[in-house]
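notes to self, project folder thing:

trying the whole complex as one job this time. last attempt i did each chain seperately and stitching them together was a nightmare. three parts in total, labels are on each line so i dont mix them up again. if this works i'll redo the older ones the same way
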Amino acid sequence: MAQFTKANSIYEWLDQRLALTKLWKVLAAEYWIPKNINFLWAMGVVLMTMFTILVISGIFLLMYYKPDTNLAFDSVNYTIMQEVWFGWLWRHMHAVAASVVFLVIYIHMFTGIYYASYKRGREMIWLSGMLLFVTFSAEAFSGYMLPWGQMSYWAAQVITNLFGGIPFIGDELVIWIRGNFYVSDPTLTRFFMLHVFLLPLVIMMIIGLHFYTLRIPHVNNQDGEEIDFDAEAEKYKAGLKKEAKVIPFWPVFLSKDFFVLGVFMIFYFYLVFYHYNFAMDPINFDPANPMKTPPHIYPEWYFLWSYEVLRGFFFDVGPLSAMDIGLMAFGIANVIFFFMPWLDKSDVVAPAHKRGAFFWWFWALLIDMIILTIWGKLPPTGINAWIGFFASVTFLLLLLVILPMITKKEARRAGGAA
Amino acid sequence: MAQSRRDFLGMVFGGFAAAGGLAALYAMKRTWDPLPSVMAAGFTTVDLSPMKPGEFRTVTWRGKPIFILRKDHTDLKICEDQDVKVGEGDYLVRIGLCTHLGCIPAWEPDKKIFKCACHGGEFDACGVNIFGPPPRPFDIPPFKIEGTKLVIGEEGPEYKKLVGKA
Amino acid sequence: MRELKILAVVVFFTLVTYWGVEPFAHSIMHPHHEPATFTYDDLKPLNKSGDPKRGAEAIMNNGCTGCHGIKAAGIPAPMDPVTASASYGVNPPDLSTAGALYDEKFLANVIKNPVHAMKLEHKFGDAKPFPMPNFYGSDQDLADIVAYLKSIAPKEVTPKDAFVNACGRCHDMKYDNWYVIGPKPKMDTELEKAQFNLKHAQYQANLKKYLGTNPPDLSMYIRSRGHEYIRDFVEDPQKLLHGTAMPRVGLTEESTMKVIEYMEKVGDRKKEKRNSLGPWVLLYFVIFSILAYLWKKKIWSEVL
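result (full assembly):
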């Protein structure tokens, strides 16, 4: 047993038992971040804040929401939106945060790709981040069902139907997921459970994992420079703050994050109060009607690129039907980014503008995904179908063929130089 | 952890952030408040004219039982300053919850008492605790008299008089 | 400087994506249509000036009050809503406010040939006659009747009354407790509730026989359709939803705005709160950002 002396203050008493000082050092005051960073490094804290907003607003929505197909729509649109004090505010905050959180996730992801922060020991950071992306997607989809409007219903119908494409067990699987032969009350109740309990729990655990994965390889920096964190930390602690290449998480790193966060919150609350239709689709203010599909249905904007990959293959090739090709492409699109660290065959950790062909590859990927996103919303007819097709093929080629090719070349050059 | 006390800017910023947190807490507190529809539904109107002497009724007000007992022209105890007089009727109007722990006592006409099954408390026809653990007589609900009707939930002059005396 | 450049790139691609999935995509999904003019140009104008007194007689002589009540003139509705809907499919409107709510050219035309004025030729004809017969009197009679309706109409119709008369006999507005058979009263017993629901269901069934479909509850339409769409749709439903069973109702522009005002009050009743709280929250975060920036500058001055 440890030795305990008489404590002179409550803090000291707790410190003896919980090692608060040490904990604070490990987590914040002596958790070292490179100094050579820009505001894109603040996206993690922005994401954490958005997730907190989602949890808190969600708690207050949960107090009045009724997961029952007869009551859900009115509990949201009447009780919460019109009766509950600030209920409208919670709902607008929740819906808008659910949408912009994906904008920040994408910025976060593309930052990781641009600065090559997914390899040379940082694979686990990337993988846990991708897991978060997938669980956030599931969380967004299950939440979208809850208001039980027309978009909720038909999104649920279409997405659960996708599982029917899985060979042999597809049809039974769809019924199993829905708990009925069609999307109905049991479907709503189980997705409610997923949305408010299981998925948030999983997300919180993966967030913990994501933070943990940063410990050993440390955060990357703007130039991909390999930093001796221990040596630099000693410099900083010795008072050579200006010479050290690292800064502590608290207060230096966070002070910048708070500023970025403040600016982001101006943007976010502008959307909450004045520009929310993009996140709260007007069609979803019509109650669910299983007998009438709205003339245009489309997923939320953050799912559009993978949705377009699904739709892009609209003609049969030999024995393969259009639907199967689409499903396979969709399946690949959803997991392909997990393999980023291995599709990139080069060891070079540097920003894209110092990596030659990779730089062009990066912008091609970004533009292709924006094209997929935009065309994912347009009706897939005439020329639009062909644009969707070529963009989908380009997407698969970029990741499966071109990326390994150019990075292999880069690796050879780097090897030759060394 | 050792923060410089001269970090004035940091204090201002922290204080401002905390003020925002307080505003958010206010919104959260408000969200817990009962809904306007709940508050508006807090009235119960009872027409007393069909009640006969000796008749006992229970109505619901804000989810609680309200005992109404007509006592004139019977041998039930009349308590001048605690009964409600509507027309020529003399009524006992009380919240029907035992003042001990909130069970609902039953009216026993032959014994002329309210008896609580939970812990044996008893109240007489004036609503006064006469036996057992209840610490005080039945509570009086706010009411207003409109002709022969009793509006429970609103404080009328008769109610104020009654409570002032009681 | 470099950070501003990065920010510009991020903002640029965000805006392109936003433009693509919102304004651009919606402009393709919802082709542009001409905004409503409320001139009802396709209808024949009324060239005669009418006399309200003779109009009152014409209304009596032509049996209008056999189906329509005129409360303003002390004439009650001949039947209750459910019975009326059993006979006609829908409860005929009281005519007291018609002169104020509806366009006068439309009024004259709807009396003369209702199916034509309401643009319901695809629903009603010889095989399925419209419950209100055509009027075979003179144009002078028409002018007189319109003049009479205008003479008894109130100067000011409330937004709710405008909705109830023009829309509320086919559409529920349950978030404001309005149902096609009238407001739902406070009911204490299960029997009363069942009776009300039965009446409502009977009316809805009659309406479905009449229109072929049940018109939707409009409580949230201000959020699902928006001002502009509702305005243009009400002026001419066929233009935006070809083949719909909804008749053109002939509201003037002013009364249409009243209907929309009412729909907004019901479906978006926290709009004022939203708009009044918004600037304060934004101001808070502007100050938050300024303070955060100053603090950051001070902290970073030690390390840079």
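what i see at first glance: Chain A has a mean pLDDT of 95.
need to look closer tmrw
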